[in-house]
Amino acid sequence: MATDDAMPAKPMPRFPDGFLWGVSTSAHQIEGAAALRGPSVWDAFTAEPGRVKDGSTAAVACDHYHRYREDVALLADLGVDAYRFSVSWTRADSPGGLDFYDRLVDELCAAGVRPVATLFHWDLPAGLDWLERDTAARFAEYVSAVAGRLGDRVGKWITLNEPAEHTLLGHALGTHAPGRKLLFDALPAAHHQLLAHGLAVRALRAAGMADVGIANSHGPTWPASDDPADREAAEFYDLLLNRMFADPLLTGRYPEGIGDLMPGDVAADLEIIAEPLDWYGVNYYAPTRVGAPQGAEIEFGGVTLPAELPFSVREIEGRPLTDFGWPVVPEGLTELLTGFRERYGDRLPPVVITENGCSYEGLDDRDRIAYLDGHVRALHRAVEAGVDVRGYFVWSLLDNFEWAEGYARRFGLVHVDFATLERTPKASYGWFRDLLAEQRRVPVG
Ligand code: IFM
Fold it and tell me: How far is the C-alpha of 17 from the C-alpha of 23, rounded, in Å?
């Protein structure tokens, strides 16, 4: 638990009234109870030797499926306004699967914590494939079923989590499920996810939902130098990570040159993809420094980037690194949000930070406190600069199954002992609880 000397000294500036404070998780990373749902592409992937670094699977994970009451009690004690979880498509499709989310949502409502449901967080049912256009239509059917069941209590919805990462890691580089190494031939997977997003927005609206967003991963791209070759490579990277996933939603167009690479009737699809959103979710972790290709493989954040890519990722020097090796750059969040505001103007709806966090070991996780404190202050600077930000969600409530890294990366405010499944709040949990209490204190005088 936080002690006074674990607390950063400067008072945190106050966020606007009604600002939504929360924490995020995802189904595959915490639920376990894999036998009580159908298989997903992640089950198949983790079963292949060598895919997950510590050889683990998410069969049990945090066993949240059976321990959700304990986890909701942790949320209530933390004092968050909202909890972002994801619905597992394969569980929803399994007999009785939606009953679990019914129970979870009831428990959250009884605890006064607002449920925020993500409809796709990478655990695609085995047998479906984002390279197939039909998967988008299947997604919309599943979304209608979930909204029909939970929409009387869940108001706030997220269609997809990080289609950029799912495309890049899962389909282009093959380090995540489904493990394909298609490089630029992976682009149809991005288009079909974006189409699925647009169809899901329509399905949610048809079910009467009026608070719909997405959780897109974004970060500033910094050129390695002023050299034109580095600048060009950085622009290209920005296009792949940021613009390819934001432009279609916010402007109804792909960046120049990208639309021609996408399958199907792209113009008609873009009308669906650009369905107006109530808010825009941003997952922010760090900026990326990018230069011209160097003709060699590069190790970057646990991923090997092949030599043939038209860019190379370079180290950001002089910054502390998280245990994952990601640089800690809070001002990147201010830069990202003010840059988005400049780029998209009034087409950018209110923003919610749907993920921000870091992996560190230990219960006395002062590094995590420093990371989160710095990023919340950076977010406030974006608010002061005129960006309409409505919420902030820490990734994550619990240490969990960090995809290809297995259980080796600990992003939680709450420590999980994966042998006993015991939960122990870390110092950062106490820090966040104090921050929320402080933000709600009514100023005197
Ligand atoms: O754990 C992931 C999450 O599933 C998606 N966003 C990034 C997190 C940390 O890698």
Answer: 18
CATH architecture of 4-440: Alpha-Beta Barrel (3.20)
Please provide the DSSP assignment of 237-248 as one string.
Answer: HHIIIIIHHHHH
* Cβ of residue 24 lying under 6 Å from some atom of ligand 1: no
Q: What is the dihedral of CA 399, 400, 403, 405, to 10 degrees?
A: 50
Nearest Cα residue to 440 out of 19, 7, 11: 19
* Rounded distance between C-alpha atoms, residue 79 and residue 335, angstroms: 29
Domain spans in the chain, listed from the N-terminal domain onward: 4-440
Question: Which residue's CA is the nearest one to ligand 1's atom 10?
Answer: 402
pLDDT of 156-187, one tens digit each?
A: 999 999 999 999 999 999 999 999 999 999 99
3-state secondary structure of 197: helix
Q: Which tens digit of pLDDT belongs to each residue from 350-383?
A: 999 999 999 999 999 999 999 999 999 999 999 9
> What is the enclosing helix (H) or strand (E) of 432?
helix 427-440
Q: How far is the CA of 424 from the centre of ligand 1 (A)?
A: 21
Is 56 exposed, middle or buried (CB count within 10 Å of its CB: 0-12, 13-18, 19+)? middle
- Catalytic residue chosen out of the listed positions 31, 107, 162, 275: 162
> Which of 402, 405, 413 is the pocket-test mutation for ligand 1 (most atoms within 8 Å of CB)?
402
Provide the 10 A C-beta neighbour count for residue 145: 16
Catalytic residue from among 31, 107, 335, 355? 355
Contact criterion met (CB below 8 Å) for 286 and 219: yes
